[in-house]
Design brief:
Elements (H helix, E strand, L loop, with lengths): L5 E5 L3 H13 L3 E5 L2 H10 L4 E5 L7 H11 L4 E6 L4 H9 L4 E4 L4 H12 L4 E4 L3 H13 L4 E4 L2 H10 L4 E5 L7 H11 L4 E6 L4 H9 L4 E4 L4 H13 L5
Helix pairs in contact: 2-3, 7-8, 8-9
Length: 244
């Protein structure tokens, strides 16, 4: 069984790696250090981890290549990437394959601790659409990429689900009968200020989108969209300092 408090820190810079490890240990985590991707893979073969925090740019295997190998050894492993460089294509690949979030250096240790805690909470992405086929198709795409995701089909069910079990990110249609996306967003944010809400719409008027963002909505995607585009929005929401 994977330790719920064991974190693997992977960074080729010894000072950065030691600082990360020391701060995470102060938060009560058991930390294992690896100086590169090869050592991270060896560590994953020997013990189970709840989360991996890995730099992207490293000699040998980069962070995304390391992530892929770690997922082969421990399927479903939660991985957070760190980077100080604009390696957008590489980062896009990682997010599209299920990286939990990307943190850009420099960052505060408080911000890092909040993201680690959020990631380890293993809360699902909740997809809300009054068309079940649409909701289930999105959920299937997210699950295929390794994300935990669930579907409900109206705003009332979304709010009830958020009350029963904490939700990480909620993806909801703006135009729904009974309880629209704007009101659902407002109620979700009242339930927990940590829930990030992403809207999707094919025909909502601009004033509705404005009302959504003014009530704490994080982003709005225009239908139709690729699941990869949604995954990028989810990863950004998870790493945004305001969402932790």
């Amino acid at each position: 069984m994977r330790s719920t408090r064991r974190v693997l820190v992977v960074d080729d810079e010894e000072g950065m790696r030691a600082t990360l490890a020391a701060n995470l240990e102060l938060e009560g985590y058991e930390v294992v250090e690896a100086r590169d991707g090869a050592h991270a893979i060896e560590a994953a073969r020997q013990q189970r981890f709840a989360l991996v925090l890995s730099d992207v740019k490293m000699p040998g295997l980069n962070g995304v290549e390391t992530f892929r190998e770690l997922r082969r050894i421990q399927p479903g492993l939660t991985v957070v990437l760190m980077t100080a460089f604009a390696i957008e294509e590489l980062i896009e690949e990682g997010i599209g394959e299920g990286v939990y979030a990307v943190i850009y250096k420099p960052f505060s240790m408080e911000h890092l601790a909040r993201i680690v805690a959020r990631a380890l909470a293993s809360r699902p992405v909740l997809v809300v659409d009054d068309l079940p086929d649409v909701a289930e198709t999105i959920v299937a795409g997210l699950r295929a990429a390794g994300l935990r995701a669930e579907a409900v089909y109206d705003g009332y069910a979304a709010v009830e689900r958020a009350r029963d079990e904490a939700v990480d990110v909620c993806v909801l249609d703006l135009v729904m009968p009974a309880l629209d996306g704007v009101t659902t967003c407002e109620l979700l944010r009242r339930t927990s200020e940590h829930i990030r809400v992403i809207a999707m719409t094919g025909h909502a008027p601009p004033e509705m989108i404005h009302a959504f963002t003014s009530r704490g909505g994080y982003a709005c995607l225009r239908k139709p969209f690729e699941v990869r585009e949604l995954m990028h929005a989810i990863a950004r929401a998870r790493s945004d300092p305001r969402s932790c």
